[in-house]
Amino acid sequence: MPCSSCWALRLPLAMVMTMAKVSELFEVRYGVTLELNALEKDPFGINFVSRTAKNNGVAARVKLLDCVEPNPVGSISVAGGGSVMESFLQPEPYYSGFHLFCLVPHEPMTDAQKLYYCTCLRANKYRFNYGRQANRTLRDLVVPELADIPAWVDSASVSLYDGADAPATAEAVPVLNPEKWVSFKFSTLFDIRKGKRLTKADMLPGTVPFIGATDSNNGFTAFIGQPAIHEAGTITVNYNGNGVAEAYYQPVPYWATDDINVLYPRFTLSPARALFIATVIRMEKYRFSYGRKWHLERMKESTIKLPVTADGNPDWQYMEIYIKALPFSSQL
């Protein structure tokens, strides 16, 4: 995506875009600067946007302050430090932390156009790091003029995921009582198998997901042409690499690298149950590191604590109900 004058100069003449400084398209404000630890958290309050790359920048919801006016709805938040240049369109009024900018368009823009500019701004991330923040230079970064935004931008549907945050059921989220949960050996609940090494040089082009030892994107790192070696409806757990104990539900057949243990359930594993279990597995992350890996034999002897029924068996129904009562569970 063209986000600098140098990039634009490489385009054919008919495609060259007119560039403009960020400050020519937006009023660049230093956001409402507050400290999250000094605010009262409120699940029904106002968004607090920080310099994180996750969750649209939202770190928490906090109680609205009578004397502090929030940043305006429809503005773009830009991290000047931390996860520098992470940029998000904010659909609600919000408070913000230190070194976070608020961009308000000088002219009316559609949400699709603002999202396009968020992408342009993120494309400048390579210019910065923790030692070189964007605080002084954000206003002077160049992006395409509004009139030169590609036509496909406004043809994209930004409402595609409207309602995605709805829960699958109208039931209240059940109360968690971890102190009453019971430990089960992984080997009694799962048949645990290892992944298999496959180098980038040996990967063929194709459509089979390759699950690597990463801490994001559900473990997915590439599509390959080799046949899948693991079945759908299983859980992958990193025992090595980036993010030991990161656990993901895999809904389609896939290839897992050799830094991963694959859990084949000895019970009926629905997506909701899998997400509950994967979350509990991640809570064990603190036990492991590069020096103490969660290898196959160690995992077989490890235990996982789960809610139980009156007869002492895992309460699969409770796990199902809990997940389906959460926001976004309608998308499972």
Account of the protein in words:
This protein is of the alpha+beta class. It has two domains: about 5-155, Alpha-Beta Complex (Adenine-n6-DNA-methyltransferase TaqI, Chain A, domain 2), CATH 3.90.220; about 180-330, Alpha-Beta Complex (Adenine-n6-DNA-methyltransferase TaqI, Chain A, domain 2), CATH 3.90.220. Helix content is about 15%, strand content about 25%. It contains eight helices and 18 strands. The protein has a four-stranded antiparallel β-sheet. The chain has a four-stranded antiparallel β-sheet with strand order 11-17-14-15. Strand 14 (about 235-240) and strand 15 form a beta hairpin. Helix 6 (about 270-280) packs across helix 8 (about 315-325). The radius of gyration is 23 Å and the shape is globular. The protein starts with a helix and ends in an 8-residue tail after the last helix. The relative contact order is 0.12. Mean pLDDT is about 90; it is low at about 1-15.
Distance between the termini: 31 Å
Task: Determine the mean pLDDT.
Answer: 91
Query: Low-confidence parts lasting 5 or more residues at pLDDT below 50?
Result: 1-14
- Any idea what the CATH architecture of the largest domain is? Alpha-Beta Complex
Major sheet characteristics: 4 strands, antiparallel
Number of helices, counting only DSSP H or I runs of 4 residues or more:
8
The gyration radius over C-alpha positions equals: 23 Å
Order of helices and strands: HEHEEEEEEEHEHEHEEEEEEEHHEH
- What would CATH call the class of the largest domain? Alpha Beta
> Strand percentage, roughly?
15-25%
Helix proportion range = 10-25%
Number of structural units classed as domains: 2
Strand order of the largest sheet: 2-8-5-6
Give the structural class: alpha+beta
CATH homologous superfamily of the largest domain?
Answer: DNA methylase specificity domains
- What gross morphology would you assign? globular
Query: How many DSSP E strands?
Result: 18
